[in-house]
Amino acid sequence: MLRFVCVAAAFVALCNGQASEDRDMICKSRNAFYSVDGNCDAYIECRDYRSKEMQCPDGLHFDPKASWPNYPCSYPMDVSCAGRGTPQKALPTAECPHQYGFFPSPRATPEDCGLYLMCVEGKAIEMSCPPGLAFNPSNARCDWPDAVPSCNADAFLGFKCPAPAILENGEVDETTINYEYIGNCYAFLSCEKGHARLLMCDAGYAFNKVTGRCEDADLVKC
């Protein structure tokens, strides 16, 4: 019986040693990262030609283009799983659908669509997009309000662009027209094809509602 246990233990050790050797054969470079087939979250890290299988945190994907020693895990909007396998099973919390990532805020409304959640280790942090931008759940980025279906862009910006003029040839006039942004003379609303975008003048400039351009702030009544 003791002999059988010893033989079995030796077999397991041999198999584990062989698996380690097989992984080490992947290490063509002294220090590097390599993908794991069929899994877009797992990867092999090679250090001094010795390999170790690693796993990105839930909500992050392994980036095959990552160079050692940079952190090799990135957000899904930056690194897609397409054609590389499936992501790991989600580990949701009461606050977050994944341990890491950017997600819609429960406080967001069609009229206030710049709010979102940043999840870190399953903890949600309330965030807000820069002024004039709305959170887009489809790409987890801050986007133009008119590109976010759940956002009421006119109500969110407090401004509606006039309907574009129709030219003599029947085509829509695509000329960009700028309008003042009430309450901030360093910002302005730019209408592009009927869609309003809140923009800012460069430092040292202010928006001149007469000319419809950003000009030297010293020359603009603000």
Automatic annotation (TrEMBL):
Residues 24-83, 93-153, 158-222 form the Chitin-binding type-2 domain. This is Chitin-binding type-2 domain-containing protein. InterPro entries: Chitin-bd_dom (IPR002557), Chitin-bd_dom_sf (IPR036508), Chitin_bind-dev_reg (IPR051940). Keywords: Chitin-binding, Disulfide bond, Glycoprotein, Repeat, Signal. Gene3D superfamilies: Chitin binding domain. The lineage of its organism: Eukaryota, Metazoa, Ecdysozoa, Arthropoda, Hexapoda. Coiled coil: none annotated. PROSITE patterns: CHIT_BIND_II (PS50940). Residues 1-17 form the signal peptide.
